[in-house]
Amino acid sequence: MNRRAFYALDDCGVEVWYYADRQRVSTETAMHRGMLGMKATFAAAEREAAQQRTREAMRSKAQRGHVAGGMVYGFRNVRTAHHVEREIVAAEAHVIVRIFEEIAAGRGFAKVAKGLNADAVQGPRGRRWAMTCIREMVSRELYRGRLVYGKTQWQYRKGRKFKVRAPESAWIIRQAEALRIVSDELWARAHARLERTRQTYLRQTGGKLYGRPESGLESRHLLSGFVLCGCCQGSMHAIRRTSKRGRPRVYYTCNNARVNGACINRFSVAVDDLDRAVVHTIVQTVLTPDVVEDVVTRALEIYTSESDVYAEQQERFAGEAQRLHEEIGRLTSAIAAGGSLASLLEALKAREGQRVDMLARLEHLDGLAKAPTWDENLRAEIRRRLTAWSKLLHREPEVARQLLRRLLVGRLTLTPNAETREYEVRGEATYGQLFEGLPIVVASVPPG
Predict the structure, then answer these.
(1) 135-139, 191-195, 442-446: least confident range
(2) How far apart are CA 151 and CA 174, in angstroms?
(3) Rounded mean pLDDT of 165-188?
(4) Cα(346)–Cα(280) distance, rounded to whole angstroms?
(5) What band does 212 get if pLDDT is binned at 50, 70 and 90?
(6) CA angle 34, 37, 42 (to 5 degrees)
(7) Domain locations in the chain as residue ranges
(8) In whole numbers, what is the pLDDT of the chain averaged over residues?
């Protein structure tokens, strides 16, 4: 009990007694109040000392490979004469291996948890499985025979105790092959897949994630992960609902509005209706030969009009690169002659950095100087690709989503219209990734 709580009780007429000496706590005089403060300080010091003793005892157990507290799924705690050891539970170990294999195959944390619940697999402490539990288990080093203790520690901040991450130098790490459940190969495959998922997320200027990661298993819905709510800029998720006639149907709805009411957008749109509308718009306004030829023609016109500028820049950059090369030679000679080493090395490093930058600019201009040609062969190849892409969009969602990743810039924004109760869909497309391998330069264009 802190001093403020005690005074509040005292003001309400509640008597407080010491447990050890059976004396009533009094605040009538300054001496009584002083003794109260001193006893509270001594009690806090003893409490911290007890915590330190406990912490040291737990670390000593961890250093010997014994259980330092807590139950872990996949193991049972077995008490011996002087300590507690872990023992693998075969049935739970099979579940852990299944989790790692599904993660390595591309399933997400939520899908793994749903699959375990659907198969009536009992979770830790008899509870249902949740994605947070799966995430934590996949990161648990003990499953690959590596005991790590002391990753976190308690700290007092502003009178309150918080758990914070301890420096890695304070961790206790031991190999415990007898406790291994997951092989190094399976661990590496699962974590490599998770790393690929993290790396393939694209980031907007504001730091928001957008675009669905390449997890290895695609969504069944074409636009899942590609649509944003126009009201809150949050994700729109596909959910299944049953109509009054008893027919189930999948809808896109704002996740912020559905989960926590943080958005005013209460409208939803049927998944198949939105898929058809978006595919139709892309095929009719983006993947058409006339639009593509106009974009390529404009790009070639811009290139032709700026060819003289490129030549002038090439000449200027080449002269600057040569000048820097000569300066680097002089500085090297000065160092060899015994000049001021520190200042000369600093100048040499700066000149080398400038020269590398200048050579990179020259290489870029050399690429631009290779004039593309707009002939019938190129026109025929573009038409062939457009036909193939249009067919892909009407195939399985797993295939069409790969094309959308290359075609769309960011995500589609769905803005509801309260009067018409319809959504306005806006987005931006680019031909850049679609035309890889073709000798042309293209620009971004809106889909409609």
Answers:
(1) 442-446
(2) 13
(3) 88
(4) 60
(5) very low
(6) 125
(7) 3-49, 77-193, 205-290+378-445, 305-371
(8) 78
Between the CA atoms of 135, 136, 140 and 143, what dihedral angle is there, to the nearest 10 degrees? -70
Give the C-alpha separation, 44 to 229, whole Å: 52
Query: Can you tell me which residue has the tokens 């406990």?
Result: 54
- Architecture category of domain 77-193 in CATH: Alpha-Beta Complex (3.90)
The DSSP secondary structure of 53-112, one letter per residue, reads: HHHHHHHHHHHTT---S---TTEEEEE-SS-EEEEE-HHHHHHHHHHHHHHHHT--HHHH
Residue 189: partners with Cβ closer than 8 Å, 6 or more residues away: 104
Give CA 48 to chain center in angstroms: 38
pTM, rounded to two decimals: 0.45
Long-range contacts formed by 416-419: CB under 8 A, 24+ apart: 416/230, 416/231, 416/265, 416/267
Q: What is the model's pLDDT at position 93?
A: 93
At residue 179, φ and ψ (nearest 5 deg) are -100, 5
Percent of the chain at pLDDT exceeding 90: 10
**Beta pairing class for 408-417 and 227-229:** parallel
CA distance 238 to 223: 9
Structure tokens at 95: 């579940």
What pLDDT is stored for residue 373 in this prediction?
A: 57
In angstroms, the CA 283 to CA 290 distance is 12
Compute and round to an integer the Cα radius of gyration of the chain.
Answer: 33
Give the pLDDT band (50/70/90) at residue 68. Answer: confident
